[in-house]
Amino acid sequence: MIRKAILFLFICAVNQTISKAADYDTVYHQVIFDNVVVNFDEKQNPGAIFERNGMIIMANGRILLKKVALPRNRRDARAIVSVKLASNGDPWDKAGSLFVIPAATSSSMMDVARGTAPYPVANGDLEKTLRGMIPDKGYLPPVELMRFMTPFGVGYYNPKDSVQREQITPVYIDGFAENVEWVDDITDRLPLLQEQDSVYVGLAIDSWLPTGYKVTAQITMTESNVKGNRAKKRHVLPLCNTLAYYLQDYCDYFAKRPLILDFDLPKNCKDATLYYIVSGHGGHSGGDEFTPCENILQLDGREILRYTPWRNDCATFRRLNPSTGVWLQKRQVRYISPKGRAVKEIEEPVASSDKSRSNWCPGSMVPPLAIPLKNLGKGRHQASISIPKAQPSKGDLLNHWLVSAWIVWEE
Question: Is the per-residue pLDDT at 10 higher than 60?
């Protein structure tokens, strides 16, 4: 009887899922970047900015931009983005970002590259660290559609012969993956992709090698086919984006003071939500990448989030990391011997990619946190982002925090 009840509930759940999927039709699908190479190559990609094969290329190949034109929806719509990546010879783990440049901004990184506009900065040397990272004087920073971390050499460094495969493949995996693919829901940012007839979507990876990575990125939009399921009128307000895309510094601002962000909301706003992406980087073994650091977010002086961004499951990404550094560590191990249970000392391989990190793993995506802002209405507001234990950059100890935040509300 219990098994029949469980089966009935399972069938109902499947039927409900199928029904929900059937209620939405695909109205837009575009492969924005099709197996493109993102790299740093001054010979192949000379100059600060130029166009080739319908793409704008910046930073000697480290940034690619392309126009996309999503239709406007009358009924409720959803948007999904996917990114597929393989190493093209770069063996390292690097921060990557798929982003959109808000159409409402007065200037962008493209204007900076062309020399037609600078990044606006507030007064003071410290604020120069934030150039191009916060709204100012009509400028709006890029909004991330996906934050991802390249794994160590996925695909390219997979062992080719049996001897090499035996030497570098851990016993607990059946082989290395050919690529990595991430998928995420970006429905909350859909209004940014529909602001004008077309907007620029960018792809950036912090590679410093001419080999780089091969990447495919695409967007799919579905719209409800149910009459009366009208589209909600949403708005997106960029708050900050501390990624160093072009001519910007690695952001160690949080090691010095909280980031204060003032913003205004209109009279008819409701159901506001703050979205927050964060990951810590740099500083080698004792730096922010490998040190848990509490994040504290406040709104109008009221604490809305206090948590420590941390990933301790990085060993589960081992199939994506063939070129990770490996060293041996001695330890006492319990095992089953021919005479029964026993203990002995062994040397066990430990991979860099296995180590826990500040909210990311080599080969992981970094999804946003959604923080509902109850009863947030019209007027001037102030958000504060604080990372009290963040460490400053010094020499090659490039401690920095990649923080993106935006607010979405409905009319």
Answer: no
